[in-house]
Design a protein that fits this description.
Coiled coil: 119-225
Number of domains: 2
Helix content: over 70%
Keywords: Coiled coil
Length: 255
């Protein structure tokens, strides 16, 4: 466990923070590993150095939690349980910065914090490689003047490798732009699909509402018919009762 961060690790951490944003950092676990490579006291000292470092310190201030992962099941389970408990009904989830920027604010990928961080890293790499190539060119001229074939070959080899890295950095930059266009297209396609689904759902709801209204009207008509039948039956019963009373009265008169 080495508390020093540099190079790719530092770039990845910066990118991670740009993707998440401050609000989401409260649901992040900073897991320390390789505890088996150091004794306990040394590991604890390095862990404290991590916690006091510039980037981890800021993340911890925003709510990130430092936990140990010693390659065992128990520590892994502890980390998972901690993250699960963080997801409560009152705090079911949190939107990442890149989601807010692209969905709510309508920014393109290269306009987001993460996109700008990536672009800055690529441009920094490009500048570094261009400076290195310029230095190698100067060294190459010296080697040619000295007729040092071995040094010249080494410089040419290093120059080719650096040029390849520069080309790769440029490809990454172009890929970021291409990914941005592809993402914009996908978002646009999804919006159109959502609009179609929404209109289709709205039409179906209108159809169901119409069918429900027809059913209600039919039910009301059926209820009225039933009520009418009850009324007719009641009148029929009343008529039969009157007829029975008349017959009874006639019988009494004859007697």
């Amino acid at each position: 466990m080495d508390p020093r961060l540099g190079g790719k690790a530092l770039q990845n951490l910066k990118m991670f923070k740009s993707l998440c944003g401050d609000e989401a950092l409260s649901k992040v676990v900073l897991a320390t590993t390789f505890w088996g490579n150091v004794n306990s006291s040394t590991g604890m000292v390095r862990e404290k150095e991590f916690e006091k470092s510039e980037y981890w310190g800021k993340m911890i201030q925003k709510g990130s939690k430092v936990l140990r992962q010693d390659d065992g099941r128990a520590s892994a389970r502890l980390i998972i349980e901690y993250l699960v408990k963080k997801r409560t009904p009152a705090s079911a989830g949190v939107a990442l910065d890149i989601q807010i920027q692209m969905v709510d604010e309508g920014k393109s990928l290269d306009q987001t914090g993460a996109g700008q961080e990536m672009n800055a890293q690529i441009l920094a790499m490009r500048k570094e490689y261009e400076n290195k190539i310029a230095t190698l060119r100067a060294d190459l001229r010296v080697a040619i003047e000295r007729k040092d074939k071995k040094w010249k070959a080494q410089i040419e080899d290093e120059r080719r490798r650096t040029k390849t890295k520069l080309e790769n950095a440029e490809k990454d930059r172009m890929k970021l732009q291409a990914d941005n266009e592809e993402l914009k297209k996908r978002i646009s396609d999804r919006r159109r699909s959502f609009d179609r689904d929404f209109l289709d759902t709205e039409r179906r709801m209108q159809g169901l509402a119409y069918e429900l209204q027809i059913m209600r009207e039919r039910n009301e008509a059926a209820e009225k018919q039933q009520e009418l039948r009850y009324q007719v039956q009641a009148k029929q019963d009343k008529l039969e009762m009157l007829q029975w009373k008349i017959r009874q009265a006639q019988t009494c008169v004859l007697m």
